[in-house]
Amino acid sequence: MFWNSSIEELKRGFVEESDSYLCLLCGEKIQKGIIYPFEGTLYEAEKFMKIHIETTHISVFDYLIGLDKKLTGLTDHQNQLLRLFYQGKSDKEVQMEMDIGSASTIRNHRFALKEKERQAKTFLVLMELLKEQDKHAPAFLPLHKTAKMVDDRYNITLEEQQEIVKKFFPEGQNGGLKAFPPKEKQRLVILREIAKRIEGEKTYDEKELNQLLSTVYGDYVMIRRYLIEYGFLARKPDGSQYWLKK
After folding, report:
1. What is the bridge-based pairing of β-strands 233-235 and 41-43?
2. What domains can you pick out in the chain, each with its CATH number?
3. What is the largest CA-CA distance in the chain?
């Protein structure tokens, strides 16, 4: 839903469903018709969703700016500039903090970012028009927002995804893994399926996670390592706790 949402929905950070509000940043659902308490005050669902975003993600801007550069299209330099601009710093303050050029140098960077914005808008319109005409475009496997490596391994259609899942999970998606795939694209598909079995709101200790992954495949240590490598799973430096990345 993140990738299929409109710009306005992404700016808000959530979408409205028939009976709830869904956070596009982590998948949290806030049910309509319920009053939620927070720090001594009661809030209706939509307002509470905004509070959720502020308390969990700081802001939509902070969440988006923290995504991998392959997803934002920003260089490290541009990323830092946007962070400082968002903080309300003047050109002179940005120049001093980044220790580059002069205030006029920062104005040039602002101009370059505006040019990037214009190009992005034009490209979005072109792609929207293309969708209306291109009847042969396949549906591709969507990116997961926590991906560490965004490359051609994502060049896989949803039809191919279904074939891979069927091949490696012959007993169904809730069954055991027949073998760990040798190809990168196949691994990505299989790891996505395994990640679905990990509860999003739960923090696991190593024993709990190993028990869960062992029901999928015998070499659960390898599966755990790849889940971390591909950006599906996070852990504490000492390996004492693991959780699903969002």
Report:
1. unpaired
2. 7-57 (no CATH), 66-133 (1.10.10), 152-244 (1.10.10)
3. 64
